[in-house]
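My current task is to audit a protein record that another person submitted. What it holds is a sequence and that sequence's fold in token form. Thanks in advance; the entry in question is below.
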Amino acid sequence: MAEQVDTDLPAEWPGNIWLEGKTIIHLQKEQERPSHMPRGPAKKTGEGFLNPAMAPARTRSVLLLADALEHGWLVKDDKSIRILDSLCSTGVRVRRWRNEIPETLQNRMRITANDLDIFAINWAKMSHKEHPPSTKISHSVEPDRYGKIPKGRFDNGIYFQNLDARVALSESSFQWIDIDPFGSPVPFLDAAVQSLSRVGLLEVTATDTAALTGSSLSSQKRRYGAKGIVDLYAHDDAVRTLMGLIATTAAKHDKTIIPILALFDGHHVRISVMLKSSKELASNIHSNLGWRIRCDEIPYKFKKHPNESELDRASGPMWIGPLWNKEITERMTEQRVLELCFPSEEEYRMAKDCGLDWDEHDLEYAKRELIRSVKHISNASKIMSRDHLLVNLDSLPKWSNTSGAPKMDKLIEAIKQSGFYAARVPDLEPLLATDIDFNELIKIVQNLKRD
């Protein structure tokens, strides 16, 4: 496919200047000024769509990629990582990788930015050219799996190409693939799994939460082969339903999955999962698949298959194993995110010189947004990386027959004093994860309310 040139950019370039992390980005003039810490789906405005509510997911992607490079859990011996943002739009994520990952790690990234929208790709190229990373990178473009040199353009550490995502996935092999569509990731999963190397990291976003939670039962059944229940556990069900689909898709290609981080964040599900080639482990994948059964004596239990009497109170099939990797997620701290992603005084001044219309209140809001992107993750890493019970604080008065729920911090501390573990989970709802028996938890709640 012959590459189209930058003359396809609209006359209104450069648009409006914004700052995400420490990376200067260009918003189209017709896009409203983003609110800091936005939640929920944004209105798709056409070509080159940018959803500011996805900024926390992009921030966590920066942290995870930097962590993989620093700690060697994806590739060994300081080798490079081949990375594809398959639906990169205007290139904010790839540019943040180039701007915010430490300089000492930059030459190990082989980044491909792909999108079928030529407007978006050209906008990404121009943004990258106007605001080049401080570390200049120049390396040769590697041939694809057929021995051909891909058609596109390499510019200072990023290879830009204009292909259908499934074509891009089929033509080359990568060790890190990001799938972030507007809607369901289902059409891209099979190609992504096949494109990954023997060991690879897959990051997947799904914004079709009505289907994943069961709000739209027909869409859920059609896309995910699952049945949901819209209640206090709908968000966790959505995460586990998508994880289950990734696991079964991987198993079809003799690969197993190792969950790294999985969240329901505002209006979307975001999953980061490692895949490894292993026929033996892929054959055992169903040991981590099952159903969530709502119960009378406890909130729920996981079970391989519901019986006929349980079916009306069951959601699934879904992933019922651990959702996070402790060793990796415990390093996703507030200190770390500010260290990598918050602009220095000089970087902030440069952005202002480029036309950023911010004041000190905007900068403070941006700092809070970065902190929110990792809030509770490090503290919850221990419990979310093994079997746990998820409890909604607002449901406890019903179970404990008390006038209200205790404060989250007091309840967590009391659970720990009893010899168990608990932590707040990142979610809009007041959720905690714990390994204590539910009946013991209720006794603690009753004692706290009595005091």
